[in-house]
Amino acid sequence: MTANPLRDPRDRRLPRVPEPCALVVFGITGDLARKKLLPAVYDLANRGLLPTNFALLGFARRDWGDTEFAELARDSARQHARTPWREEVWERLAGSVHFVQGSFDDDNAFDELAGALSELEGSHGIGGNAAFYLSIPPAMFPTVLKQMQRTGMAENTPGRWRRVVVEKPFGTDLASSRELNELVDSVFSAEDVFRIDHYLGKETVQNLMALRFANELFEPVWNGHHVDSVQITMAEDVGIGGRAGFYEETGAARDVLQNHLLQLLALTAMEEPVEFSAEEIRTEKLKVLRAISLPEDLGAYAVRGQYQPGWLAGQRAPGYRQEDGVDPGSTTETYAAVRLGVETRRWAGVPFYLRTGKRLPRRVTEIALVFKRAPHLPFADTDTQELGNNQLVVRVQPDEGVTLKFGSKVPGSVMEVRDVSMDFLYGEQFTESSPEAYERLLLDVLLGDATLFPRNAEVEASWAVIDPLEEFWRDTEPQPYRAGEWGPRAADEMLAAEGRRWRRP
Length: 505
Ligand SMILES: NC(=O)c1ccc[n+]([C@@H]2O[C@H](COP(=O)([O-])OP(=O)(O)OC[C@H]3O[C@@H](n4cnc5c(N)ncnc54)[C@H](OP(=O)(O)O)[C@@H]3O)[C@@H](O)[C@H]2O)c1
Fold this sequence. Notes:
Distance between the termini: 56 Å
Radius of gyration: 24 Å
CATH class of the largest domain: Alpha Beta
Bound molecules: NADP nicotinamide-adenine-dinucleotide phosphate
């Protein structure tokens, strides 16, 4: 076959369609599978991004057959998919979905699954390729991995690939994450392991790299000579939903700080990769994670909080200890904030303030670079009283985009300078809709592109930052804040002590 001269194989704008393959989801009846994974599979099919020879296998305990599973998949896709509903797309997909019933400790069920995969090679031409998604309670990882090893399902033989997708949390501390990594690496080879941090699948997070490395405007000021401080926020207005069991054991630092916030920090602070490849980008991120330093005085520069009853959007909200399933004396934190340093030439002396919390006033995730004040202002003090620091804000969600805040003259006969904003909004500039994070990441798994998945060393380096914090907090009470407020007072004091304050996004 001769290559199409109009198609440059390096042209990455062409739609990327994976080779024939199967996607096996363990825990297919769970919350994540229903809300995110099944809709993402439908969206990929709808955009024409799944191979013609494709099969979806679900595994769970429920006494179901293919028909019940197909119904669940259809309902989930109809309810949560991003792209419009098209019956003909669903009909095509419905012919490729299969359910295997069993418990994870049931050898027969895994033998059946292995058999089903071999059969699909013939009936659906999937070529032996398969990705296994562990959408299951983390405590079950070892059992399922061992079953895959026992049945030979994890083996990459010539001409076929086998990959595994692991959901966070990747352990609960450095020791357990090492153990988990060793276990996963003993069953799959490192390049076949995909650890999902769904924040990295978000368009704006990837745009951070475009913003920094495709432009001349920003990179020259992206350093401690010009940046006063960096604030990274992931705020949620909701409580813990029905996930008390999980949250009681986890808390805000393990749930969000260890993964999403440290990954955003790594992308913000990393050096330019030699090329835009998984290997190079992950190498640069790892260097940053290893260069992170905690404050010496954790009592002053790390704050944990817990929401009390309050008001949110005009409605009464219960306190954390009053939520269903939560211990009335619980000391689990629902808010965490910390001041970190990045010990590199570029960032020496620049504080990175990270915060996350539940039942805060707004759902917002953003990275804000706060610049130093101009070294000299040739105006009277009163002219610039309303002038703040210049800021570059990357809004990850919602209202994805970038805002630049700078001083501008107020119209009129006197010289008065005040802050104004220049906004780039994804939704306004592009007609293409962004894929949902899980859609993008699932596609990358099937393509074998690991760029947006943290490596095990990154996960371990992140736990090395969190462990001392957890140790310090172990016997302390979280600071109270009312639902609907921006966290405990101690978090404001942490910045005020250094003459700064949190943004109110
Ligand atoms: N939900 C989220 O939004 C979210 C967000 C980020 C990460 N995660 C991670 O994603 C994973 C899945 O979370 P989830 O919320 O979807 O959990 P979930 O709702 O509790 O679902 C668990 C699934 O695992 C199956 N399962 C559990 N024990 C089993 C066993 N012994 N044998 C066979 N199947 C078994 C259940 O099947 P049955 O129907 O048979 O019980 C169910 O399908 C977890 O690692 C979680 O930490 C979830």
